[in-house]
Amino acid sequence: MAGPQIAVGAIIQREGELLMVKRAREPALGLWSIPGGRVGTGELLADALRREVLEETGLTIEVGELAGILEVPGPDFHYVILDHFATIVADADPRAGSDVSDVRWVRVEDIGDLECTPRFVETMKAWNVL
Prior knowledge:
Layout lengths: L4 E10 L2 E7 L8 E2 L2 E3 L6 H13 L3 E13 L4 E11 L11 E8 L12 H7 L4
Parallel strand pairs: 1-6
Antiparallel strand pairs: 1-2, 1-4, 2-3, 2-7, 5-6
């Protein structure tokens, strides 16, 4: 197994909803989470987050403050995820892009009904997102 990999995630909210994506690849295939992904070598965190959100949702964002850090170790991977608050720059409807099979705005009170990535709901509650 390679060493830990740095990843980023975007917490994008609007009027009681959170933008969520359904993962189309492992790890977490078929599970719901926020848009994001790995940071490339030499890539700044904010640049990686803007790239990942654009690739996965078609939306352009402005990166805000760090919400928190989530460590996700697994048998064949180890991610250190830096989740940031973000806002959409231009009003547009999200569309599923690379690495995701679905993207949608989810009412905060309905997120617990989705099959989410491990510790997602608990983490978002701890960060006062949910």
